[in-house]
Specification:
Elements: H1 2-43, H2 46-51, H3 55-84, H4 91-104, H5 115-147, E1 154-157, E2 163-166, E3 176-179, E4 189-193, E5 196-199, H6 201-204, E6 210-212, E7 217-218, E8 223-224, E9 229-233, H7 241-251, H8 258-289, H9 292-306, H10 309-327, E10 331-333, H11 336-343, E11 345-351, E12 362-368, H12 374-384, H13 391-399, E13 409-415, E14 419-426, E15 431-438, H14 440-445, E16 458-464, E17 467-475, H15 482-491, E18 496-500, H16 505-515, E19 519-521, H17 526-538, E20 545-550, H18 556-561, E21 564-568, H19 574-579, E22 582-584, H20 591-625, H21 631-649
Parallel strand pairs: 11-18, 11-20, 18-19, 20-21, 21-22
Antiparallel strand pairs: 1-2, 1-3, 3-9, 4-7, 4-9, 5-6, 5-8, 10-22, 12-17, 13-14, 14-15, 15-16, 16-17
Helix pairs in contact: 1-3, 1-5, 3-4, 3-5, 4-5, 4-9, 5-10, 5-21, 8-9, 8-10, 9-20, 9-21, 10-20, 10-21, 11-20, 12-13, 15-20, 20-21
Length: 659
């Protein structure tokens, strides 16, 4: 029930946040209106006419204090609370000191009043804050849309056929749930009754509905469009696809990029440094010249310009926008650190089966030894593979027309990367036969001679009681967009594409040639793949990264070792998705190049903002120290630069061809 409560609580939290934002907007707009009325009265001389001089100075002080207090009371409150807790140097402190100092200039006789500038600094700072809130809201939208894929309930049918809505958290694996047309699939499972069209756009970006019937896998988060279906759940809700996606989204902001961490550390040093510089500027200048009011004003202007808002806002916003933009094309990036690493990828390494190929194997030929029935070869292979869920095993079992009696199967042992060994009861003589099914390494390991095959495909050799009886040829189909994916990677600056596979060298060579892959390595065990990736990483330069793309449970170690691990999310294994840094929700390898482009665009925007903000601030800081820049220019140096940087950061959200 915890999930149900959490789900129910989210809308309230969003409403409260929205009301708070609306209230702040109204407050700032009111303060702006009052400010401009007072400013107009002041500039036209009506205040001087009404109060005279110096009476109008104090009248201006009181009047400008009204919009200042309306707009800036929360900033002053935050600054005061932070000082109480020992967190002195932040943007709230800088704004508070600079604006209150501008108002305090009224205490200096024969000094031009600066209340208007003080109020304007606070007002436009708050306008910048509102602009930032709007930009963050826009950048969150594409990711926040994903939060709506969380189901509110699951329909469970009782013994009388009555449907009850229960929390998805309370549904145990193996339970049959009912999904009506228009409802969202709450938990991963297999259809046991009915047929329908599934809308998977929220997860994969695929606009064309997918047909699903009895025996088809369905993943949570999809929408049932046409027919009523009954689904037997295969996982608890906490391990289902929708839960994994939500967890990835929620944790993405916690993993910061090197650049983002640098800006955070920079701001911690920069803010107290410029505060000290402003104080030294005012103190030393006042002591040397005696013109205290002039040098204090320079110090206050220095403080306003130095506020690091443009950096501390725009850099995280750029990364968040990049992650949001990637999610719009069905690519989930688990953190800005992985987005930054993705931008530096120079080598992309692929697993073959299920990544570049569909992973749907078909038996295309059976080549028995002389005097052996082809069905004899196939039946023994099907029995030996009876307990395996590997795509090759599934294709062998699908090709066998007979019924497999699992009670006749004894002691199945899988030899990783080689094949299986099983003892099968022979009903004719009540004895047992030792059946080996696998590649040539399995045969060699058991001292069994085998025959080669001229066909391209995966070759399963079969032996019974140490006698070689023949082999089965199984072929996989290359994915429709695999060739386009390799071309796109080369087109976006990736210098090398590599394919690693446990399949035969002939099969690997044929696929590599068809797709235009630069390099391939065949007949590899999971440990061999890790070793190959290690070699490739060692050959990379300091600023070059290696990405590995895989989908199987045996790819998890390689995904973890690569600089960037990319997993197929729709059909990939749980272990691969957990180990990966980037998840392709639609299983399309062509989206890898698009994700790299998003990452590189994001990094360009990040560095544009850093260089622009620091350059403008440095120029205005120098002008402020020389007494050339006034408080109005300081407002541009702070709020203006921040708004321009925010607008630039928002470009990271725009992705060509996004849904």
């Amino acid at each position: 029930m915890a999930q149900a409560k959490g789900t129910a609580a989210k809308p309230k939290k969003k409403r409260r946040k929205k009301e708070s934002q609306q209230h702040k907007t109204k407050r700032v707009l009111l303060a702006l209106a009052i400010f401009f009325v007072i400013f107009a009265l002041d500039e036209t001389g009506l205040l001087r006419a009404a109060f005279g001089t110096p009476g109008n100075v104090y009248a201006s002080f009181v009047l400008y204090l009204v919009p200042f207090a309306i707009a800036g009371h929360d900033v002053l409150g935050k600054a005061f609370n932070n000082i109480r807790h020992g967190k002195v140097f932040d943007e709230n402190f800088l704004m508070a000191v600079a604006t209150l100092g501008a108002f305090a200039m009224v205490l200096f006789p024969n000094t031009d009043p600066h209340m208007a500038e003080g109020a304007a600094v606070m007002l436009f700072y708050q306008v910048g804050e509102l602009f930032q809130a709007y930009a963050v809201g826009k950048s969150r939208k594409s990711i926040a849309d994903m939060m709506d894929i969380a189901p509110d309930y699951a329909n469970v049918e009782d013994e009388k056929g009555v449907l009850a809505q229960v929390s998805p958290d309370d549904v145990a694996p193996g339970t049959v749930i009912v999904i009506k047309p228009g409802e969202r699939v709450p938990i991963d499972g297999v259809i046991v009754e009915g047929a329908t069209q599934l809308d998977t756009a929220a997860l994969t970006g695929e606009s064309v509905p997918r047909h699903a019937e009895v025996g088809a896998d369905v993943i949570s988060g999809c929408i049932n469009m046409t027919g009523l279906i009954k689904v037997r759940t295969t996982k608890p809700f906490g391990e289902s696809t929708v839960s994994r996606i939500l967890e990835l989204v929620e944790n993405a902001s916690e993993k910061k990029a090197r650049t983002e961490n640098f800006i955070t550390r920079f701001a911690r040093v920069y803010t107290p440094a410029v505060t000290g510089a402003a104080a030294a500027l005012a103190l030393i200048g006042g002591l040397v010249t005696g013109a205290w009011s002039d040098w204090i004003l320079r110090g206050l202007t220095f403080l306003v310009v130095s506020c690091p808002c443009a950096l501390v806002i725009s850099v995280p916003l750029s990364f968040f926008g990049g992650i949001g933009g990637a999610s719009r094309i069905g690519v989930l990036v688990k953190g800005s650190n992985y987005l930054e690493a993705l931008s530096e990828v120079d080598t992309v390494v692929f697993d073959k089966t299920g990544t570049l190929t569909n992973g749907t194997f078909d038996v295309v030929a059976i080549h028995p030894e002389e005097g052996i029935d082809p069905d004899y070869v196939l039946s023994h292979a099907a029995y030996a593979e009876a307990f395996s869920d590997h795509p090759i095993a599934i294709s062998v079992k699908a090709a066998y027309s007979g019924q497999i009696n699992r009670e006749l199967i004894r002691d199945v042992q899988e030899e990783s990367g080689h094949g299986v060994c099983a003892r099968i009861v022979d009903e004719t003589n009540a004895g047992e036969r030792v059946v080996l099914v696998g590649n040539d390494k399995l045969m060699d390991g058991h001292g069994i001679s085998w025959s080669n095959c001229e066909l391209t495909g995966t070759i399963l050799h079969v032996s019974v009681d140490g006698r070689y009886v023949g082999h089965i040829v199984i072929a996989d189909v290359v994915k429709d967009d695999a060739q386009a994916a390799i071309e796109a990677l080369h087109g976006c600056g990736v210098s090398k594409t590599v394919m690693l596979t446990g399949d035969r060298a002939e099969v690997a060579a044929a696929v590599a040639e068809q797709l235009g892959i630069d390099e391939f390595h065949a007949q590899l065990l999971p440990a061999d793949k890790v070793a190959r990736v290690e070699q490739l990483i060692s050959a990379e330069g300091k600023r070059e990264k290696l990405a590995f793309v895989g989908d199987g449970i045996n790819d998890a170690p390689v995904l973890t070792r690569a600089d960037v691990g990319i997993a197929m999310g729709a059909m990939g294994s749980d272990a691969a998705i957990e180990a990966a840094d980037v998840v392709l929700m639609d299983d399309k390898p062509s989206n890898i190049a698009r994700a790299i482009r998003v990452a590189r665009k994001t990094m360009r925007i990040v560095w544009q903002n850093i260089v622009f903000a620091l350059a403008v601030k440095l120029i205005i800081l120098v002008l402020a120290a020389l007494g050339i820049a006034n408080m109005w220019l300081a407002v541009f140096g702070d709020v203006g630069v921040a708004i321009i940087a925010i607008l630039n950061a928002m470009r990271a959200m725009r992705v060509e061809g996004s849904r």
